[in-house]
Amino acid sequence: MPTLKEQFWDPIAGFGVTFRTMFKKVVTEQYPFDKKPTAPRFHGRHQLNRWPDGLEKCIGCELCAWACPADAIYVEGASNSDADGERYSPGERYGRVYQINYLRCILCGLCIEACPTRALTMTNEYELADNNRADLIYEKSDLLAPLLPGMEQPPHAMLLGDDEGDYYRGSFGSRQQSGDTHDRHESEG
Ligand code: SF4
Ligand code: SF4
To answer: Which domains does the chain have, with CATH numbers?
Structure first.
């Protein structure tokens, strides 16, 4: 024969957690309608940065690809040529093909540590899902930073210095037209 407690109290007690939770603050996030900002140094999608005149910082050296533990980066370098009007970066070489495979990438950030020109940085963007595999291989055009005011779409000549040394040293002198733009751009990366 069940006791009075077992008959009347125990069935109600089972809902104790439910009733208590009903009056607590809701912690559910309404993603994707309400997106919470990430931590400032969150490792999200990569970005290929530009110099303040629009030239690309990537020199096609492949150090990022060699540093990647997941073999997620593919780079093919090519030579700049002022004679042919084919200059995409200061110096000799640029990244002609640049791909990151987000099916493999673990967002560890080793590639951005390896990059000698700070061409490669990471944004806070974390929406890297899709319904097919091909679209998760990001091409250079998907990764390049947008052109900001004062930048020109490459190919074009070096507008900020006589040679790549002026760019790498940051000694743009009087030709620097948008230094604050450059800083803002870097901080986005
Ligand atoms: S974040 Fe890590 S895994 Fe992703 S491409 Fe860079 S080195 Fe490779
Ligand atoms: S992103 Fe950096 S490390 Fe990778 S190829 Fe370009 S310059 Fe080299």
So the answer is: 50-158 (3.30.70.3270)
Find out whether the beta carbon of 110 lies less than 6 Å from any atom of ligand 1: yes
- For the chain, the residue count is 189
Pocket test for ligand 2, best of 64, 73, 110 (most atoms within 8 A of CB): 64
**Exposure on the CB side of residue 131, measured as CA atoms within 13 A:** 0
pLDDT for res 188: 41
Alpha carbon distances (Å) from 37 to 29, 46, 58, 124: 12, 17, 29, 8
Low-confidence ranges of the chain (pLDDT < 50): 177-189
The per-residue DSSP string of 6-19 comes to IIIIHHHHTTHHHH
| pTM exceeding 0.85 | no
